[in-house]
Write a structure and sequence with these properties.
Helix 1 packs antiparallel against helix 2, helix 2 packs parallel to helix 6 and helix 4 packs antiparallel against helix 6. The protein has one domain. The chain is built from six helices and no strands. The longest helix has about 35 residues. The chain is about 70% helix and about 0% strand. It is mainly α.
């Protein structure tokens, strides 16, 4: 389920800001790679700095994209076997255990990413002399944003399921749950 329609205004704006950064970052990657390849092919030289910028953008877009997917409820869950084998009460407990495991994983990635970023901050990149830690900071930032969205989503599922519209399970984006209504 796309949780964004039931987000408070602060989370809506955070989600929109991330979407804007993803669009800008993705377009920048395409433009940089195309321009650099064209210059290399037609003019016989390339822009050395473009490789570093592209690497930074790719990492930041990857981890911000994770947060955007969490906000949309778009991370894939394969539930066919669980829905066939387990009763609905057990499915609910399993979903809570998985949500807890996701929270613990995100916290672990935040701590690990923070450690890597702070330990490499003094190192500089070869061409632009940017801190290498800025590259690695993409992981704790992206995972912290993912955690914010995931905690809100789990809170809605647990404490306010009435906010989830159209009788759609929060674990299906494809409308597969709606087949049960017919």
């Amino acid at each position: 389920m796309d949780f964004r329609p039931i987000y408070p205004i602060g989370l809506v704006w955070l989600s929109r800001l991330i979407d804007f950064a993803l669009a800008l970052g993705g377009a920048s990657i395409v433009i940089l790679v195309f321009t650099n390849a064209s210059l290399r092919g037609f003019a016989g030289f390339d822009l050395a700095w473009s490789l570093e910028v592209t690497a930074f953008l790719l990492l930041w877009v990857t981890f911000l994209g994770c947060a955007a997917a969490v906000a949309r409820g778009a991370h894939m869950r394969v539930t066919e076997i669980v829905e066939t084998v387990l009763p609905s009460v057990a499915q609910l407990w399993l979903a809570r255990i998985i949500d807890l495991a996701i929270i613990l994983l995100l916290l672990s990635l935040i701590v690990t990413g923070w450690s890597i970023s702070t330990h490499t901050w003094a190192q500089k990149t070869t061409v632009l002399y940017w801190p290498v830690g800025l590259l690695y900071a993409s992981m704790p930032v992206g995972m912290a944003l993912s955690l914010i969205f995931h905690l809100y989503n789990v809170g809605v599922e647990f404490f306010a399921p009435h906010l989830i519209k159209d009788n759609q399970s929060p674990h299906h984006n494809d409308g597969a749950d709606l087949e049960d209504l017919s």
